[in-house]
UniProtKB/TrEMBL annotation:
Species of origin: Rhizobium mesoamericanum STM3625
Record protein name field: Pyridoxine/pyridoxamine 5'-phosphate oxidase
Domain Pyridoxine 5'-phosphate oxidase dimerisation C-terminal residue range list: 164-206
Catalytic activity, reaction form: pyridoxine 5'-phosphate + O2 = pyridoxal 5'-phosphate + H2O2; pyridoxamine 5'-phosphate + O2 + H2O = pyridoxal 5'-phosphate + H2O2 + NH4(+)
Cofactor remark: Binds 1 FMN per subunit.
Length: 206
């Protein structure tokens, strides 16, 4: 079975984006070698200059798409300042892409605490030790900070830093793209006026 035959039926006939995304992500989990939940995250600074980097999607539902970061990092500051972002998933083996954009909100403390507890202990230490996006004088300085926090939290649970939490993008648009011959690709965009609004669907030229 080819990648374009995996999703049952014609995806361009679907009228709701979240179930379709769930199917595509599941198929990516079965086909991608590494990190099928990896996604390019685009933000914008106070001068309107964009930034993009890869992050990992850690959850999604009808409310939006969730990822976690350090609030004091560059992306954290841009997200807190501009409160909007975009994502682009690209699954090369499936020849598929999903783009979305919209306003962002901070996840609840309960959500952030629950996810933080699932992280490897070393990653939880790293959330304390790393002054993300800021100049680092040497690798030794980072290793020293890791050692200090490892000693501080040698026993018991490691609490979540107040500066580390998650964001949820509440998309106003979600576009599904699938490769076709001669670059005559299939593109469907779901749009809504607000995060609480109803979706409309538009078929786009490739």
């Amino acid at each position: 079975m080819s990648a374009n035959e995996l999703t049952s039926g014609d995806f361009t006939e679907r009228n709701e984006p979240f179930d379709l995304f769930a199917e595509w992500l599941k198929e990516a989990e079965d086909s991608e070698i590494n990190d099928p939940n990896a996604v390019a995250l685009a933000t914008v600074d106070e001068d309107g200059l964009p930034n993009v980097r890869m992050v990992l999607l850690k959850g999604f539902d009808q409310d939006g798409f969730v990822f976690y970061t350090n609030f004091e990092s560059q992306k954290g500051q841009e997200l807190l300042g501009q409160k909007k972002a975009a994502m682009c998933f690209h699954w090369k083996t499936l020849r598929r892409q999903v783009r979305l954009r919209g306003p962002v909100e901070i996840v609840t403390d309960e959500e952030a605490d629950a996810y933080f507890k699932t992280r490897a202990r070393g990653s939880r230490i790293g959330a304390w030790a790393s002054k993300q996006s800021r100049p680092l004088e040497s690798r030794f300085a980072l290793e020293k900070a890791v050692a200090e926090y490892t000693a501080r939290y040698a026993i018991g649970e490691i609490p979540r830093p107040a500066h580390w939490s998650g964001f949820r993008i509440r998309p106003l648009s979600i576009e599904f793209w699938k490769d076709q011959k001669f670059r005559l690709h299939d593109r469907i965009e779901f749009r809504r006026a607000s995060p609480e609004g109803d979706w409309t669907k538009v078929r786009m030229y490739p």
